[in-house]
């Protein structure tokens, strides 16, 4: 069975006054995630006209390795902080490369 490359787009909206704190927490995920098996890229972006809006653009060699990432210690450590830092949970879309 051929594993398909998957692309993830995840967006976060900081609560008012929590923009810098959320940015710091999300930035802290980049280095350990880039070391994970299957991570092709893991890039954090900010929206220039909204300093509280963040987007991760990620590519993984397989859905299985993406799922392993979601169970990693640094992702699990993020979850308890989200209610105080972000408006709701992140919007996460998973895409499969077709061409």
How would you sum up this structure, described in words?
- The chain has 99 residues and is an alpha+beta fold.
- It has one domain: 2-Layer Sandwich (Alpha-Beta Plaits), CATH 3.30.70.
- Helix content is 34%, strand content 34%.
- It has 4 helices and 4 strands; from the N terminus they run βαββαααβ.
- It has helices spanning 19-34, 63-70, 73-78, 82-85, and strands spanning 6-13, 39-47, 50-60, 91-96.
- It has a 4-stranded antiparallel β-sheet.
- β2 and β3 form a beta hairpin.
- The longest helix is centred in the first third of the chain and has 16 residues, at 19-34.
- The radius of gyration is 14 Å and the shape is globular.
- It starts with 5 loop residues before the first strand and ends with a strand.
- The model has no long low-confidence stretch (mean pLDDT 94).
Condensed summary:
This protein is an alpha+beta fold.
Strand and helix map with partners:
Layout: E1 6-13, H1 19-34, E2 39-47, E3 50-60, H2 63-70, H3 73-78, H4 82-85, E4 91-96
